Amino acid sequence: ESGYDAWLHYRRDRHVKQMPAWCRVIVVHETDDEVLQTAASELQQGLASMFGQQPKISTVPAHEPFVALGTFQDHPCVAERFSAEEQAEVSAEGYRIRGVEVSELAGLTGQDHADIKGRCVTVAGQTSKGVLYGVFHLLRYLQGGLDGKLKSTAKQSLHAPILDLLSNPANPIRMINHWDNMDGSVERGYAGASIFYNNNAFTTNMERLRDYARLLASVGIQALSINNVNVHQVETELITDRFLPDVAKVAAIFRAYGIQIYLSINYASPIQLGGLTTADPLDPDVAEWWQTKAREIYAAVPDLGGFVVKADSENRPGPFSYGRHHADGANMLADALRPYGGRVIWRCFVYDCKQDWRDRKTDRARAAFDHFKPLDGLFRDNVILQIKNGPMDFQVREPVSPLFGALEATQVLLEFQIAQEYTGQQKHLCYLVPQWKEVLDFDTYAQGKGSTIKRIVSGALHNSSNSNSHRGKAIVHANSGSLQEKPTHHIPKPTNFGIAAVSNIGADTNWTGHLLAQSNLYGYGRLAWDPDLSADEIADEWVRLTFSGQGKDNGDTELIPTIKQMLLDSWNIYESYTAPLGVGWMVSPNHHYGPDVDGYEYSMWGTYHFADCWGIGVDRTTATGTGYAGHYFPPVAGIYESIDSCPDELLLFFHHVPYTHVLHSGQTVIQHIYDTHFEGAERAAHLHATWISLREQLHETIYEQVLTRLEHQAEHAEEWRDRINTYFYRKSGIPDEKNRPIY
Ligand code: BDP
């Protein structure tokens, strides 16, 4: 009980005495398809662990109930269970699961099944990846997650599964980005060293990588970049003979779980590796160098997903050095990868970190939009722009990036951060799914009502508008000076959309440091698959899967609801004792942990709150501020432009207001700051106390792991409270109405 098995521990259920009949035989046709083999062995292993008996694997059904796996093409046993229409409803990576009475299996491959009594279950997909995801769904169901819907009938349904479901992933790309360095460190890693590298070499612990692949595939992740976006000298060599054989080994491990790997590359590679004097994307020698490089890379790893690129940002090299635009840079790489089906995932986190310092009228929040909106329609169809959820940098509260929806002819990936860089670094509890849900459900109005972020990033909005007149409209390109091409207006490919997120795992035994932070990895995968799941449903699943078999009544009455509520409250708690009302930052520079109210205020990074004795906040309006608010579509822009309609939680992101300004809540800004900080610290202490109340019901090591973090959080929340309250009291001179201690 170390947390290593995470949500895949498949504990033996002490209430289930006998293995259900249908689990005893797994029918799967003989295959070279590695992913299908994985699906069969995962099912076999999961069932064996849950029921204490190893199921047989068989290529044909015998005269007993069974569970059949396969694609519709593989096995008559599978295909015959679904009508042509039912099969057609399954997308490339989706699946259907159905449990039926054997008597309903008439005509099955000419065999007589009359003497088979009971139920059979089928897991089917168009592809073996779909089958694998279906198997993990079935295991979730059996393990007690039951999708949160079948709790009370669970025991009965084990023996006669009434499952009949179809599940298709909403997002074609469901990716995790590692910020791992080859020296073994992890940029913004809070769970120990890298599992991929140590001492400037690849790990030899392939077992750990395989276990990671299982965790990812179990929640539907199918793309993985394995090195930091900031590519240093040694990682630059990942695309050379020195490391390509290792990359190939890692790719093989993940391939068996249906996961494609990607490499982050150094834009200056032609100089650093190739001895060229330039990395200018329009220099023919540079383009040729990348073409040759791509040939070498794909000879070693034929199914590499492609490249992830951070260019011209935070001192990384990029096309700007040569007076070129990012479309020039991305397209040159895309042409090199095209023959092999590779993609270029080009990050929009591009800003000049000194610009706001030089000129306080500029605004870092504008940067991604200002750089990329003018390039809409200019990217090759194997380029995808990866956009952080907000315009700044993964703060506890930010508006959504206005690039979503504004890019009409460009494929996009949304970028979340599972690593809790600014949200307590996996020492504080912060279940991020509710935050991500708000982003995904946000309506941009890009094409009228219903243009939600989730529909934009899944490609659904583009697909539905491909045929309407909207798409043909001319796109005005400002600054297209260096661009060699005219807008292509290509129709984005539906497969080149989705979600990526920065990983929160490391070599810690429980993967995420804080055991409860596993819920963020689980939740991210589930949400990327189905953005319509609620934060509550996902929390319920994760808690059930992780803690099943612990607590009284299988955890149903107390353990599960209590831990679930802790998760659901945690983002709000964290927000309430840290930077107020969307202003962000106020963290220690560099490492970003703990309060430092003016830590960034006088630095060059463009992350200011402008607090003085009269007020606080950043004026981002069009009339008097940086104009950022005008990047949104109406009516969103109008809502943010006006102090009266701007939502409280983002007020200081968009407006500079006096401390006496009255919020929609009826409270003044200053009193809101005091109240939320006192309450936040109290609620953090309550999380700690709640956990202590569960002591008897939890396994000791698990209890202890979480306890120490919650203890720290409670203390640290007090420090946050005191620093923020004191700061604002001294700035404003306005006392707390409730006379609580502020020094
Ligand atoms: C910020 C991190 C920095 C990353 C950067 C990025 O502080 O370490 O390199 O984002 O996304 O959140 O590139």
TrEMBL record:
Keyword Hydrolase listed: yes
Segments crossing the lipid bilayer: none
Native species: Paenibacillus ottowii
The reaction(s) this protein catalyses: Hydrolysis of (1->2)-alpha-D-(4-O-methyl)glucuronosyl links in the main chain of hardwood xylans
Uppermost EC category: hydrolase
Domain Glycosyl hydrolase family 67 catalytic: 161-467
Subunit field text: Homodimer.
Domain named Glycosyl hydrolase family 67 C-terminal: residues: 512-740
Keywords: Carbohydrate metabolism, Glycosidase, Hydrolase, Polysaccharide degradation, Xylan degradation
A Pfam family annotated for this UniProt entry: Glyco_hydro_67M
UniProt-recorded name of the protein: Xylan alpha-1,2-glucuronidase
Domain Alpha glucuronidase N-terminal: start-end pairs: 6-138
Family (UniProt): Belongs to the glycosyl hydrolase 67 family.
Enzyme Commission code: 3.2.1.131
